[in-house]
Amino acid sequence: MFEVFLFLNSYLALPHIFPYLIVSMTKKNLKGFNLSELQAFVEGLGEKKYRAVQLYSWLYAKAAQNFDEMTDISKDFRVALNDSAAISNLQPVAQSVSTDGTTKFLFSLEDGLAIESVLIPSAKKISGEDKRLTLCVSTQVGCPLDCKFCATGAMGFLRNLTAGEIIDQVIQVQRNSAKRITNLVYMGMGEPFLNYENVMKSIDIINDGRGLNIGARHITISTAGYADRIRQLADEEHPVKLALSLHSLDNDKRTKLMPITKKFPVDTLIEALDYYYHKKRSRPTFEYILFDGFNDTAADIKAFVKLSRRIPCKVNLIPFHSISFMHPSGIGASLKPTPAPRIEAFAAALREADITVMVRSSSGQDIQAACGQLAVIESKSQPRNTEGV
């Protein structure tokens, strides 16, 4: 008991966490509640269920930041809401705008931690209008997987985001964008499948026509390779797209790049993806960062072609973006990008085998917002937490 007292005493002494705990213990944060949870909440206040529909619309479709903005709700009910509940909002700390139009957002969470989200414009239509606007959202503060090419992995892992914190990235970025966000990718900080329940809950609300109304076919989840969750996603009614951060079909090479391969070897991943494809009839996307002389050889092309004959797929070839600002060691310090002409040659060889290939741009590289570069530098010194890996 004395040890528990000492822990709580030291924990509550942290000034940036104490206010967060007080709010959490006294009021329910409604952002992240689905409709059925809101219905139970309003009935607990003695209100009728239709009030939950009003709240749901205000929270998500209308992006209300507080209860006083909910103008079609009676004053008495707003007073009751203010007394018993809260709407937690991510706090924008900084925005960085790339020369290519990509914008990186730094958000502060209620406990003083921080995350990044990236808004990425696409190529222009002939009319001059953007085809789409994609938001890359984070699902964890840091990441426990320690992929050797990823800045987020160098941060270590601090905690999972709540469903509300994931959803609020979309809400807050949309409030700062004159154009509608059309696409969503769960490819920011963290491994989505290590926060599976909150990720799926956020998707249900974001996809809901009464919520943020982003279509499921415009939402993609990227995983580093949790075969069990790939199978679970195949069995559930979530029509989102799946991407696998692959980077090598050679088990030894992939293990050097991505230690998670020790738990889920390449063969196990391929079996899970085969199950996913035949269950969903949806082609997975393989994300593949090309490293000079490491995974860009003729043997790598041959392995890809063989895989595509088993599992119809799409391939995103991604240039390697430096994470030297995180001071990597070991193999992470030795990785070099494949030169652009050889990336194009790799892509051409896959296309000759009738594989759908996209060569990704390096959008946001000048502001450290490109693929693999997201990290909150101040958090790098935090102790690594590998819980749940």
Describe the structure.
This protein has helices at residues 2-12, 18-26, 35-44, 50-61, 75-84, 151-155, 163-175, 196-207, 227-235, 251-257, 266-280, 298-310, 331-334, 340-352, and strands at residues 28-29, 85-86, 91-97, 103-108, 114-121, 133-136, 140-142, 157-160, 183-186, 219-223, 241-245, 285-290, 314-319, 356-359. It is α/β, with parallel strands linked by helices and 389 residues long. The protein folds into 2 domains: 2-86, DNA polymerase, domain 1 (Orthogonal Bundle); 91-379, Aldolase class I (TIM Barrel, Alpha-Beta Barrel). Strands 3-4-5-6-9-10-11-12-13-14 form a 10-stranded mixed sheet, with helices on one face. The chain has a two-stranded parallel ribbon with strand order 1-2. Strands 7-8 form a two-stranded antiparallel sheet. Helix 7 (163-175) crosses helix 8 (196-207) and helix 9 runs parallel beside helix 11. It is globular, with a radius of gyration of 22 Å. The relative contact order is 0.12.
